[in-house]
Amino acid sequence: MDNNNTQFPKIIIIGGGFGGIQLAKKLDKKEVDVLMVDRHNYHTFQPLLYQVATGGLEPDSIAFPLRKVFRHQKNLNFRVADVKQILATEKKISTDIGDFDYDYLVIATGSETNFFGQAEIEHFSMPMKTVPEALNLRSLILQNFEEALIEKDPKRKEALMNFVVVGGGPTGVETSGALAELKNHVLINDYPELDIKNMKIYLIEGSDRVLSPFSQEASAKAKEFLKDMGVIVMENVRVNHYDGDIVTYNDTQSIHTKGVIWSAGVKGAIIPGLDKAEVVKGGRLKTNDYNLIEGYDDIFAIGDIAYMETKDYPHGHPGVAQTAIQQGQQLGENLLKIINKEKPQPFDYYDKGSMATVGRNKAVVDLKHWKFQGFFAWLTWMFVHLLFLVGFRNKVVTLINWIVNYFSYDRGSRVIIRKFDRDAMTEEQKPI
Amino acid sequence: MDNNNTQFPKIIIIGGGFGGIQLAKKLDKKEVDVLMVDRHNYHTFQPLLYQVATGGLEPDSIAFPLRKVFRHQKNLNFRVADVKQILATEKKISTDIGDFDYDYLVIATGSETNFFGQAEIEHFSMPMKTVPEALNLRSLILQNFEEALIEKDPKRKEALMNFVVVGGGPTGVETSGALAELKNHVLINDYPELDIKNMKIYLIEGSDRVLSPFSQEASAKAKEFLKDMGVIVMENVRVNHYDGDIVTYNDTQSIHTKGVIWSAGVKGAIIPGLDKAEVVKGGRLKTNDYNLIEGYDDIFAIGDIAYMETKDYPHGHPGVAQTAIQQGQQLGENLLKIINKEKPQPFDYYDKGSMATVGRNKAVVDLKHWKFQGFFAWLTWMFVHLLFLVGFRNKVVTLINWIVNYFSYDRGSRVIIRKFDRDAMTEEQKPI
């Protein structure tokens, strides 16, 4: 298949995440021929997936049609396609809808859930990296409660009301906080027949503190917020097994639960074919300072999938939206320079800080010279997330939802549109 | 299983649609013990399903959690359950989560798509009576366009861009109008590589006019609106077959299409076990003037599933939300009268009129003494639909979407969250 409309250099971008979009925009109105491919026809605003999973936001508010993003960009074609392999020597990618030629290839595939090879956990626990996964989790939470209502066996009833979030990074902290609010403000009213005290939310973190990449101050405050909201925070704890009924941790201890949310790690979403590339820890592709994958002279990687060692970041940059955005912008400019035989600029990360929200009026913000927590941090978090959310309609609808949720203490999207079929999963995913 | 909390009479309502909700609300704070069961945990606002299917609204805006509706109603329990059978002699219903006893039973199950026994059509065409079905259709429309983009075979490309709506009632008219707007304002921009002129939208109606239950004036104007928007309106046309590729009509003619939307009829969603009931045309249960199913003294039917002959409506009441709402309210009052050994009131339908929208600024309204069409009708339609939409958040989010859609000519929810798998359908539903 041919994507060649012009004689301009052909750039293929794999992935319409934060990095891919920023890069493509930098190429608007330039003399290049851009093809973006993505498995989905929409951009996912991943930082808010946990709010979809807990009924606070509609899925459509955090999914933005990629064709709409590039509606006015004449030099870009978009295809919904699953990239099967990179044929680097032929300068081609092979996809489920055919092959495409490139002069320059950019891997912006982001990351996927890392189960660290534990097939049983992968099989039974809920990841939360895509919109369908967030919707599955939303259905599961509600289905568990509907089932608990009619369950006679006390052990199974307990398991249906227990939720274990594994991994105390921003996603784990935000998800367990949102679950606590769901418990305290929504489920308590929705299920008066159940004793809501029996719903337990555990947050299990392997290191000695939640939000370990943040400041000590932020970690401590986040933990305090979580405890205030009733989350059982367990640090220095390692999960061993989960068989669909019982989570085992620290070798000897266990929790009965039918709801394990896995946010313990990510790995780069690698595409086969980059045999010369060096894949480092976490499945990231080693690049030079210009995001060029080492071993190639025409294949680049940006965002979560890229691993670049610099003086300030000797172990690579953080796997956050800002890295992807900044690398996408920089590479956009660099590609034009490379095409024009000019010298590209090495990437220099500007750390805008980190933030995570725990619940209403409760968030933590780490800036370079200023760390703050609580109500003002929570306002900051909301403002920044609205700012980066793609699309005017999405911004307005999300803001309305947040206002309604805030004043009503409610979560309006607690609907089971598609039932999550535990057994279907058991059949399909069965790798064990 | 026992749902008996008190010594009060036990009323079971099957179905949380317009009728079931109104009925249950009339029983609030009364000395009765109410159990509502529904297959879903939410109420579906069916009149706006077509806007979900065409990317204009989020699914969550028209789905409202039933537990939230009855949050403050102490004498009502709700269960997500699939009713398998009515055991009338034992005064029980049998469901997938157990049996429940009743003193009075109300069937408010509404209607389902009627394929009139045509298994092949049922197999290959898209119904639109539930939220998942509307989402399937949304995915199909977008997937067809993504596929058309890469299709080389001109016949198949044509089939992917042709849409045939069968049935010219309000749903068919509204859906084909919305498809035309999607074509004229959205798809034309999203797919500049395709020649949008090749997208054809057919509306096929068996009788001599679209909106046949409406006034002649409304039918004529709706047809004019549709034609202006580019819909090919075919009246007095009967569909014979659809094999997944070709629709055959009037015995000899055909259209190549991969998208057939079936809105040609509904039938009552009957539950087995009512052996003494008379099932009339369209699968409706014959009732007396008090919504009591003939042959029983404790089982009632309201809304789409009920068939009541009265002087003014010798062939039953129209299958619309208003009938269900009014019958639900009346039966609520009557049940309390029956329990108190008072004389119930016969049902008297108050016709508030009919309306359908075709596109922006284009709607038709039939009131008893006033018929009007166009911009003011369109405003009226929106106002009435917002009024009946359940929930403050849903009203606000829907209004915002309508405003944004109106000024931007856009449809923001054109995302394929779950791919519609034609082949999976072929495997699962295979009744032929």
From TrEMBL, chains A, B:
Domain External alternative NADH-ubiquinone oxidoreductase-like C-terminal: 352-407
UniProt keyword Transit peptide present: yes
One of the Pfam families matching this protein, by short name: NDH2_C
EC number from the UniProt entry: 1.6.5.9
Keywords tagged on the record: FAD, Flavoprotein, Membrane, NAD, Oxidoreductase, Transit peptide, Transmembrane, Transmembrane helix
Keyword Transmembrane helix: yes
Organism superkingdom: Bacteria
Enzyme class, UniProt record, top EC level: oxidoreductase
Residues passing through the membrane, by range: 375-392
UniProt catalytic activity: a quinone + NADH + H(+) = a quinol + NAD(+)
Coiled-coil residue windows: none
Domain FAD/NAD(P)-binding: 10-328
Family the entry assigns: Belongs to the NADH dehydrogenase family.
Protein name, per record: NADH:ubiquinone reductase (non-electrogenic)
